[in-house]
Design goal:
Helix content: 40-55%
Largest sheet: 6 strands, antiparallel
Order of helices and strands: HHHEEHHEEEHHHEEEH
CATH superfamily of the largest domain: GAF domain
Strand order of the largest sheet: 5-4-3-8-7-6
Number of helices: 9
Domain IclR-ED: 69-253
CATH class of the largest domain: Alpha Beta
GO biological process, one term: negative regulation of DNA-templated transcription
Structural class: alpha+beta
Domain HTH iclR-type: 9-68
CATH topology of the largest domain: Beta-Lactamase
Radius of gyration: 20 Å
Protein name: IclR family transcriptional regulator
CATH architecture of the largest domain: 2-Layer Sandwich
Number of strands: 8
Keywords: DNA-binding, Transcription, Transcription regulation
Length: 254
């Protein structure tokens, strides 16, 4: 029977799983990978030999790890979102100015992906890292981006990923999510009120370019006792809006 599902290549899927395991583990041997992923050793060895030949993994004794070629690939991918040097500078300046954790993220396949991160002097440590994918409905980055999307586009993302509970404060009801997105559009910024990490609040704002549309979003995150409504409204919203504007203006001339 005909299907709209694209044809998938089993060997490529295996390669992706091996690379993801190497990323998570920091390096591993053939036996460990085969056991963890439930692949045969011969399959794992063949994939790793090919990846090594292409400089995507490196071998040290019996251990394989990701190769530095991914740095070049990553820089190209990040520059495809916005001028990464401008983004990186604004993220760093925001972190230095506020003392908090600052992220820039972009939407891909219904998730928000961290593209840049910087920590200020007072920043709390979080598990976020560049490249990590997060739900859109529970993060200020994701909600700021969703507020720029059409209702149909939001529905597609909700249908694809659902609204899983991250904390007791996460919005898990679709109607409540749409109400929150309306509030974000009226207010001009999003708030993650301990919806993704207990005890952490964030403000987010979308970043757009005239022809490219929504490039992504900026966020400032900190402990809830510091990220008060008063601070967000009277200090941070203006600061983050200025940084977003710098990225937007420079993106017009790419």
């Amino acid at each position: 029977m005909p299907t709209n599902t694209p044809r998938q290549i089993d060997a490529v899927q295996k390669t992706c799983r091996i690379l993801e395991y190497l990323q998570d583990s920091g390096g591993a041997g053939v036996t460990e990978i085969a056991e963890e992923l439930e692949f045969s050793k011969s399959v794992v060895h063949a994939h790793l030999a090919t990846l090594n030949e292409e400089n995507l993994v490196v071998k040290d004794g019996y251990t394989y790890s990701l190769g530095l070629k991914f740095l070049d690939i990553a820089e190209t991918a990040k520059n495809g979102v916005a001028d990464h040097e401008i983004v990186r500078n604004q993220v760093r300046e925001l972190a230095e100015g506020t003392g908090e954790v600052v992220h820039f993220g972009a939407e891909e396949n219904g998730r928000v992906v961290y593209v840049a991160k910087s920590k200020g002097e007072s920043a709390v440590e979080t598990a976020s890292r560049v490249g990590k994918r997060m739900p859109m409905h529970s993060t200020s980055l994701g909600k700021a981006i969703l507020a720029e999307f059409s209702e149909d586009a939001v529905e597609q993302i909700v249908d694809q990923h659902g609204l899983p509970e991250q904390t007791e404060h996460t919005i898990t009801d679709e109607e409540r999510l749409y109400e929150d997105l309306d509030t974000i559009r009226d207010r001009g910024y999003s708030i993650d009120n301990q919806e993704n990490i207990p005890g952490v609040r964030c403000i987010g704002i979308s970043v757009s370019a005239p022809e490219a549309g929504v490039l992504g979003a900026l966020s400032i995150s900190g402990p809830s006792q510091r990220m008060t409504d008063d601070r967000i409204e009277n200090e941070l919203k203006e600061t983050i809006a200025q940084a977003a504007n710098v990225i937007e203006v420079n993106s017009r001339y790419q």
